[in-house]
């Protein structure tokens, strides 16, 4: 029955979403913008900050970053945070999503040395937000592991790191208890594990496809769960805050109505999203992930599955560690079933066994996978609701990546309009409990391996100018009007909800 309901959702056609939704967002719906410490702060080694795996990666392997750039200065938000807050204020946003750099607070990664200047920086930032009536939504880990934990422990391949993360989380809950009520433990564990410890495309660059990435998944989930439990037990009664983890997913649209292609789409959603969501929202790994990795591991000659077991105790620890669903989403891709790959070296791709493709008519953003497909967001929100129940959902990132830094960013305006309209469809047509939309991003930033050559800001940052001026793009005006009128079309065309 569940399967039939799910599949009928996928039957929503593009045509259903063709027109823009003119209704106003519900009165309590919140808007925000997001950023992350390693991408905007700069000051990579100033005032006591320790080295992170991304500092190390960019300095050691410049060829791995498209423009050979580093995050050393980035937007210099460490010195210019007041300017950033002023932009958030000017746009009328309710929420500013930011991240704390673990190594700015604990330069070694351990609690042996607390960097008071780092603490002061975030205290000042929170003070500034408070003075401007902006709610901070704070991520504890946005990919910037302290390098010493990679060097001495192997990073997320070592379960000890989950405990160290929990120590760091406790310290942050304690230090910023009066300043923050909305916490996110970890941003996009999929990127942390698949790219960091699977393909090796991201820092720390470990290539262990189909092995290390699964070990990482388990450790990251344990880290999240431990931090959540600490908050629940030691802090929640004090400030009644909320904690969750940010998951991310492309929407995977089946390439045909055939059962095999429908199943392929479900399979990749479970491998990419369910592998995190299922243990947290339901308990244990998704069955399809468990059985496929076990089956291929066995044929490959492994004595046990490459997907680590979750013990009954671990399942209990992880299950239920969420106060809402936080999701990042940028794009949609097509997916078909494919023939089982020959048994050979372990591979996450072979475990998934799908063929991914893009419709040629789709408008592209900065990369091949970045398709502009607004209805994909609506379908993803519905997928979450069907899988995990009628939970509160917050979009913690969505935005348009372009290779063109133009100020006349009509493509970005079109993207926001389409995707926000899709949010309205999800709210009003599908009864999805979506309560906030946080865009990525307010200013251009250091885009990891994309360096300073992929642009997502509603304000352009001139990275050649030592003062890093922020220059308004057209999309900033558009988004400001959306927030003001609570509607995605011109004010006189908005209809009341
Ligand atoms: C990450 C951000 C990144 C954004 C745009 C997300 O996956 O969380 O750090 O900048 O994508 O590329």
TrEMBL record:
Pfam families for this protein: Glyco_hydro_1
Keyword Glycoprotein: yes
GO molecular function per UniProt: beta-glucosidase activity
The entry's keywords: Glycoprotein, Glycosidase, Hydrolase, Signal
Bilayer-crossing regions: none
Signal sequence interval, chain numbering: 1-15
Annotated family: Belongs to the glycosyl hydrolase 1 family.
Subunit structure: Homodimer.
PANTHER family given in the database record: GLYCOSYL HYDROLASE, LP05116P
Protein name: Glycosyl hydrolase
Lineage of origin: Eukaryota, Metazoa, Ecdysozoa, Arthropoda, Hexapoda
